[in-house]
Amino acid sequence: MTKNGDEQAVSRCLALIESKLGWGNNEKWANYDFEKLSEEINDATGVRLSVTTLKRIWGKLKYDSAPTLTTLNTLAQFAGFADWRTFKQTESNISAKEEVVEQIPILFSVPKTSKPKFRYYWLSMIIPLSFIGYLLIPSKGKTMSEVADSKFFTFRADKIQTEGVPNSVVFHYDAKAAKTDSVFIVQTWDTRRKKLLSKVKHAHSAIYYYPGFFRTKLIADNEVVKTHDLWITSDGWLSLVEGEPMPLYFKKEDTVKNGVVEVNEAVLKKYNLSLHPKAPPIRVFNQRDMGDLKSDNFIFETYIKNDFNQGSNACQPMEVLIQCKDDIIIIPLAAKACVGDLFIAFCGTYVNSKDADLSKFGADLSEWTKLRVVTVNKKATIFVNDIMAYSLNFPHDPTGIVGVQYRFNGTGAVKGTWFQGGGEVVRF
């Protein structure tokens, strides 16, 4: 894959990324997976690696040139390191310790054939020998006096507005107790999206352009020392066009009428948006207080429509997302002819149409399509137009449901959305 001597380091970095993603064997990744990865990398690092570049790195496309330093830095940052140099230095330190441990066959012998493929797994084997390791190896690890103690830190997040987006947040913190200058704020659920802070200062501000529930974190000396739940609500129905760094927001009076949320050609024209050559990516949110509604036992029902089926939107792809405090549910829909590239995410269970029959998620989306989800004790059954499309069990612990999101291209509409759980019905 590369010709600059970094082949093994790149392979280990990719393995670490795959482990973080939890998407399974990359041999089964579809184009959708690489598109999704490109988006996640852009969200986490601010750098967009193209689908083609990612496919080349993962060996899906033949390419003889080495990755650029920008690409390597971006991959390292996505994997949780400051840059490519830091990643390689960490690798070198781990390799050096392995070599010394392998020199102690009397105290700790591991057959060569049992050595894990990636050296990260050696750490779990070295831990029982920590005492011996510290006697024989000059360790760069943290001593007890270097471990951050959370009681000496403070952290909170204050929203400027109670409801709606865009919304600014001021993070107030005290991190003077940090042993090093390694102090970060993680502004979303993703620990890779770290913002380096000054440990002697006390405030950091950020703008949130999309609604969401975020478990923000203060990290000091590579330890999470404080967390703060931050909920950016939508103030009712919110429709927008995805954009970087800021989306285009539609006014409520343009899209919400008579109980229907609709983005039609008239609305697009009003905002100088065209369906050709590529329909704009539309997102519709409603994030609000859902009471005690939990992911393990609930009923959800909605009607959706995407009546633009021309050009690059011939497959009419749609996604319905049920957003939770610590989890996500993603249910796909598409034109009947396009069910060969669909993906379900449901509280830790992931289903790809490459490995499963998801054909019942195909529908005539030019007409109103009914989607219904029923979960009972962490078993979910999904219905499309009152026909069971799929059933699955999910592993994640129950968490609160905070709202719903719809994704489609061009024109579309939503109506009749409601949840039921714990004897309570929440209608949108």
Average pLDDT figure: 84
How far apart are the termini? 51 Å
* Rough outline: globular
Which residues sit in consecutive blocks of at least 5 with pLDDT less than 50? 95-142
Q: Which CATH first-tier class of the largest domain would you pick?
A: Mainly Beta
CATH-scheme architecture of the largest domain: Sandwich
Helix count from the secondary structure assignment: 9
Alpha-beta content class: alpha+beta
Helix content: 10-25%
Biggest sheet: strands side by side, in what order?
Answer: 9-8-12-21-14-15-16-17
The total of beta strands comes to 23
How much of the polypeptide forms β-strand, as a percent range? 25-35%
For this structure, the CATH topology of the largest domain is Jelly Rolls
Radius of gyration: 24 Å
- How many discrete structural domains? 3
Main β-sheet: number of strands, strand sense, barrel status? Answer: 8 strands, antiparallel
Oligomer: single chain
Salient structural properties:
Jelly Rolls; alpha+beta; 9 helices; 3 domains; 20% helix; eight-stranded antiparallel β-sheet; 23 strands; globular; Immunoglobulin-like; 428 residues
Can you walk through the features of this model?
The protein is of the alpha+beta class and 428 residues long. The protein has three domains: 1-141, no CATH class; 150-232, Immunoglobulin-like, CATH 2.60.40; 238-427, Jelly Rolls, CATH 2.60.120.200. 20% of the residues lie in helices and 32% in strands. The protein contains nine helices and 23 strands. Strands 9-8-12-21-14-15-16-17 form an eight-stranded antiparallel beta sheet, with no helix packed on it. Strand 8 (238-241) and strand 9 (248-249) form a beta hairpin. Helix 1 runs parallel beside helix 4 and helix 4 (69-78) packs across helix 5 (84-101). The model is unreliable at 95-142 (pLDDT under 50).
